[in-house]
Amino acid sequence: MSFTDAIKKSVIEGFTAGGLTTTDIVVSLGISAMLGLYIFLIYRLTTKSGFYSRSFNKSLAILPVITTIILLAMSSNIVISLGMVGALSIVRFRNAVKDSMDLTFLFWSISVGIVIGAGLYELAFLASISLSVFIFFLDLIPAYRSPCLLVVSAENSDSETEIISVVKKYGSKSYLRSRNITLSGMEVIFEIQVKDYSGLSNEISAIPGVTSASILSHNGELRV
Predict the structure, then answer these.
(1) b or e along 13-52 (b: 16 or more beta carbons within 10 Å of the residue's beta carbon)?
(2) Strands (DSSP E) found in the chain
(3) What residue ranges define each of the domains in the chain, with the CATH number in brackets?
(4) Are 213 and 150 in contact (CB under 8 A)?
(5) 142-160 burial by CB neighbour count: b if 16+ within 10 A, else e?
(6) pLDDT digits (tens, 9 = 90+) for 43-76
């Protein structure tokens, strides 16, 4: 027997010797479903998306079961494993993930299915609990107050100096983002972080020559 034949024989025996029993399949799928439900609940409690997608959350719960099925099939038969690799390599998913945390939960669900399919049940449990605790811990860390955009329109540029002084009075960190002067007037846009939004807008509006003052919420990060 040549070296190549020995390698082929050992690979084939490795796949056929570890046959799956009904108990193994039921236990693996049961644990996958249980951890999938756990991920479903954690996502529902921690999601910060403006529009909660129940269908996306349901897919997070189903993904561990599907991944476990694939891993169990691949580990039991070499022909199925090669077929799975070929089939999955041509699958293309076109749904755009809008939130980075959604992508994190997707990887979590798939990883749980892979780990359970490999028979590492304890690792799947401990990793899921650790991840959920870490997510809740990160939510407890206070974040900087998000800055806002102040849009001020004036009849001319004579009131610009007074506008800037009021902006600095209400916000220690302010940045002039845009300055547009036309024949009809002037418009300036500031990025500013303040607590008293009403006081700022009222005092800006009271400046002679100012025609409008608008404060817009801004989801960007504050410069420090």
Answers:
(1) eebeeeeeeeeeeeebbebbebbbebbbebbeeebeeeee
(2) 148-154, 174-182, 185-192, 210-217
(3) 3-140 (no CATH), 148-217 (3.30.70.260)
(4) yes
(5) eeeeebbbbbbbbeeeebb
(6) 988 887 667 788 888 988 998 998 888 888 777 6
